[in-house]
Amino acid sequence: MTAPACSGAPRSEQAAGDDVSARGAYTHMTLLSKSTEGMHNLFRLGSAASLDGQMGKWPRMDREILSKYAPGLIATSGRPSGEVQTRLRLGQFDEAVKAAGEFQDMFGRDSYFIELMDHGLDIEKRVTKDLLEVAKAVNAPLVATNDLHYVTEQDATIQDVSLCINSGSRLNDPDRFKFGGSGYFLKSAQQMRELFREFPEACDNTPRIAEMCDVSFTTTSEGANYMPHFPTPGGEDEESWFVKQVQDGLHYRYPSGIPDEVQKRADYEVGIILQMGFPGYFLVVSDYIKWAKEQGIRVGPGRGSGAGSMVAYAMRITDLDPIEHGLLFERFLNPDRVSMPDFDVDFDDRRRGEVIEYVERKYGDDKVSQVVTYGVMKTKNSIKDAARVLDYPFAMGDKITKARRRR
Question: What is the mean pLDDT of residues 295-324?
Answer without folding.
Answer: 95
